[in-house]
Design a protein that fits this description.
Strand content: 15-25%
Radius of gyration: 20 Å
Length: 339
Amino acid sequence: MKKGLLVVLIVFLCFSTALVAEGSKESGTAGEEKIVMTFGEADSLGTPINLANALFCKLVTERTNGMITVNHIAGESLGNDIQVIEQMMEGSVQFYGDVAGWYANWVKDLAILNWGFTFDDNDHVQRFFDSSSFEALSNELIENAGIKILGISPTQPRILFSRKPVRRLNDLKGLKMRVPDIRTYMLLWQTFETNPNRVAWGEVYLGMKTGLIEAAEGPIGAAYGAKFHESGPNVTLTNHLVSTYQVSMNNELFESLSPEYQKILLEAGQEAADLARKVAEEGTIETLDKMVDEGATLIELSPAAREEFVKKSTSAVETMENDGEWRKGLWQEVRDLAE
């Protein structure tokens, strides 16, 4: 109850003080008004995403000489991912930094980011982000949700954590699997014949510890920060998805700012995204080693076992496209970007 009241209070304070149109403004030295904005997240402290978010806030505050101050609300203080994104859309939070796949809830074709074994590696994802197809989706995100992308990058593979070892596709059958509140995740893990359940990120550790859920997946750094490897100590290197990082903001607010400030925000957003990728790539092996040192067992899929996953995922693509989960032909467009 206390936590709930605290969240309500924080959101109220953010709404009443942060939005440019209605927020805190002070006169600068030349009569220009200072602006206080809020940056929300829902990631664990010390993860690549958390560090990138903190860098963005620092860069914007410094490069505007304090005329725009960005307050970083770390962790899940403002709510889960969907809740904070909706707050950004409403304007009570101005920025959000987390996994790009969440925005499939507003732009259907972004669901391709959440379909297993579609992307080979970080460079493959980056080629998609640099494509005209992704540019069109970015514009659609502005139109559908009023959200502007300031920076985006791939980060780390997503891997599986489970109470019992998973070495082959058949080991997943009937397993109570945690998935985020993204439709394509649910469909993917149904395709793998698990019993998927929507559970908040912050509840995964306890859920696996108590057996409410039996498995979960996530980016290596973020999952380590949330201690998935302690309650799900069998860590299977499925690498079924490539995770991402995206800095977004309320587009109406972005358009209301001067070209100078817009440029600062775009540059800071991409620098934050570049940092997220760098930290994630450099820390992947070290983080896996830490999991082992803390009692986890790493399981690498054999080539035959990996092929089982790939075939199962690929076999469902036609059904996904026929059902309208993303537009027909998009999956093949993405595969054609592989090297």
